[in-house]
Amino acid sequence: MGTGKTVWDDPADLIRHLQPDHPVMAFAPTVLQDRARQFLTGFPGLVTYAVKSNPDEAVIQNLVAAGLQGFDVASPWEIDLIGRLAPRAARHYHNPVRSRREIAHGVREGILAWSVDSRSELEKLFEQVPVSVIGQRVEISPRFKLPVLGAAYDFGSKFGATPDLAADLLRLVADRGYVASLTFHPGTQCTEPTAWESYIRTAREICDAAGIRAHRLNLGGGFPSHRAAGVAPDLDAIFAKIGKTVAECFGGDAPALVCEPGRGLCADAYALIARVKGLRHGTDVFLNDGVYGALAELPVIGNLDRIEVLTPQGTPRTGARSGRVIFGPTCDSVDRLPGELALPDDVAEDDYIVFHGAGAYSLVINTRFNGFGAVTRATVMGFG
Ligand SMILES: *Cc1c(COP(=O)(O)O)cnc(C)c1O
């Protein structure tokens, strides 16, 4: 206490000095910028950021500082956020279902790239979206889907046209004079490089069926973060697979590529610091954060198991690990993490659990249910 510090070396340093009794999200801007540069140098096309995964101002600003020039936005709020924080960046309005008022908002804001996955929504775009804006032609990208493989959960159940419908939409878009492109999202947290492969092949088939050369191909998000201790994501292998498959399918006449990672960019730049409130029955561990807070996504996608347990002095607990049931702070019985987490046997009340890789779909989903959820932000230089 009383050091005047506002930036910490790592989570242990923060814990030692502050001993916070509420959850803290520790953000490492250097980690985010390094990851952004890995995408910018490795991905063979334009890198955009899916704002919904973590719209914190610090994330947007650091991505712009690292050189990102585009954002995937899904709502008027996200359109305005990027307009304010990154006024020169491209905004791709890639939520394929929008109300007429939302479309009007995008048009007023000068949106140049839209996605679509149905005839009814395409009709709405045709009625409201001009073919060009200040001399630049507007792009509409039919979004297609395939049965899922390799993703942590299925995005295709909500959005995406069948390849046949996508070919029809592509032709309609081109006939109207818009820039005709294609987009897909292979599903989130795809650790297998092959997740993108069949989509790229299908994109080629859609172009052939429509008799249209897609101007751009957007490969979506789905790039993995380091969620599980034993499975480090290999982004460079994914980039290589994407480049090779595009070359095989399209040869020298390939569409320009775009990706729109959310999780793959932001998740590993954050660690959640939660505190042990109490231990019960020898097996149960109650934390001050849970599935109504920054751990909201875990029941759908699985545990974050890159965890450290630290004493209030910031010293690691090193006991043999065994499975514990982890509950969050609310009075709701679904407020528990899936399965069990392996914690050191010497874990004690008032200790801290640091969940690494917690930056995506966490802060932005956090609720104030039961009066909990007062997560604060802190800046760290790294994660030790
Ligand atoms: C959510 C979303 C993304 C980002 O997905 P991640 O799995 O976080 O990379 C990208 N594009 C669209 C259209 C999305 O809805």
TrEMBL record:
Keywords: Lyase, Pyridoxal phosphate. It holds the Pfam family Orn_Arg_deC_N. Pathway: Amine and polyamine biosynthesis; putrescine biosynthesis via L-ornithine pathway; putrescine from L-ornithine: step 1/1. Residues 34-266 form the Orn/DAP/Arg decarboxylase 2 N-terminal domain. InterPro entries: Ala_racemase/Decarboxylase_C, De-COase2_N, De-COase2_pyr-phos_BS, Orn/DAP/Arg_de-COase, Orn_de-COase, PLP-binding_barrel. Transmembrane segments: none annotated. Its EC number is 4.1.1.17. It catalyses: L-ornithine + H(+) = putrescine + CO2. Its cofactor is pyridoxal 5'-phosphate. Belongs to the Orn/Lys/Arg decarboxylase class-II family. This is ornithine decarboxylase.
